[in-house]
Amino acid sequence: MKIVSGHFYGDNGKMKEYHYTGPVEHRFSPYSFNGGTVLAVAGEDFAIVASDTRLSEGYSIHSRDSPKCYKLTNTTVIGCSGFHGDCLTLTKIIDARLKMYKHSNNKSMTSGAIAAMLSTILYGRRFFPYYVYNIIGGLDEEGKGAVYSFDPVGSYQRDTYKAGGSASAMLQPLLDNQIGFKNMEGVQHLPLNQEKAVQLVKDVFISAAERDVYTGDALRICIVTKEGIKEETVPLRKD
Amino acid sequence: MALSNVLEIPTSGFNFENVARNVALEGLLEGGQTKTPKPMKTGTTIAGLVCKEGVVLGADTRATSGEVVADKMCAKIHYISPNIYCCGAGTAADTEKTTDLLSSNLTIFSMNSGRNPRVVMAVNILQDMLFRYRGQIGASLILGGVDCNGNHLYTVGPYGSIDNVPYLAMGSGDLAALGILEDRFKPNMEMEEAKELVRDAIHSGIMSDLGSGNNIDICVITKQGVDYIRPYQESEYKDKRQKRYKYGPGTTSILTEKIVPLELEVVQETVQRMDTA
Question: What is the ipTM of this complex?
Answer without folding.
Answer: 0.81
